[in-house]
Amino acid sequence: MDEIGQKLRTARIEKGYTLDDLQQITKIQKRYLIAIEEGRFAALPGDFYVRAFIKQYAETVGLDADALLTQFQQDIPDTQPQEYATQSVENTTRKTRAVVNSPAKKLRRHGFAVGIVVLAVILVGVVYWVAWRAQSGDRQTIPTDSSSVAVSSNKKADTSSQKAAASSKKAAAASKKKAAASSSKKKAATKLAINVAASDTAQQTATITNLPASGNKLTIGAGDAAAWVSLTVNNAVTWQATLAAGTTQDVALPDGATTFSIRSGNMPQTTIKLNGTAVDASNGTRIVRTITFTAAAAASSSESGE
Q1: pLDDT of 142-166, one tens digit each?
Q2: pTM, 2 dp
Q3: In what order do the strands lie in the sheet with 203-209?
């Protein structure tokens, strides 16, 4: 058995994975996993896949893939630079992002909303212009007798009364808006928020704002593929499981816990919710990844008053 294959096999056994588990997590066929462990690299589809499969295998069993590839570089077939650039999953992902974020795509996506806004502005302008013309016409009317003067006076009185009523309504509406805004600010100040920092390594950090002192619950699930997940609190693993595709598991956090870590062997297919709030970890690049969550300190009473 090849030395690199033996090292990978030993790490897999220490993790408690079978070859079937590894096949389900990495999506690499079992026969290729066996060939890697036995050092039969010629059995793989091509030189590019030798390095790619070894790297994914190593990350899944918790080894440093880059260090492993460097250590056994002489035993692993080299890939042509152009072949790697063409087949690289990362390059393909970047191309997809460039297409999605292109100006033409954004214009098509938001064009309808912009058109509606422009049309609304035009309609408001037309209504304002018609009202202004009507008011100008009323000012140019000259009363011809005392009766018309009386009618004009009555109209002015009615207009003043209407203006006073409108002013009162506006004041009441403004007061309601202020009260609603104040209520919204208070709710926002106590709403749970989770901010995950971007990372291209196997380690990622997340900051939790307004975490309750007790009664916290995690909901961990697997998307379209299975995922092995573990929860560590106070440097001790409190829960771990291999979740089948499409399933979720509720896990209670100990009261008073302000920091914990979630490790997944298939993070892109792992979903995490804290007290019903979804955790967005899409800004990480590694398949095998650990996210360390830390609760931010509560604001002081003087800051709250400000």
Answers
A1: 444 544 434 344 544 455 666 656 6
A2: 0.41
A3: 193-196, 203-209, 289-295, 259-264, 227-233, 236-243
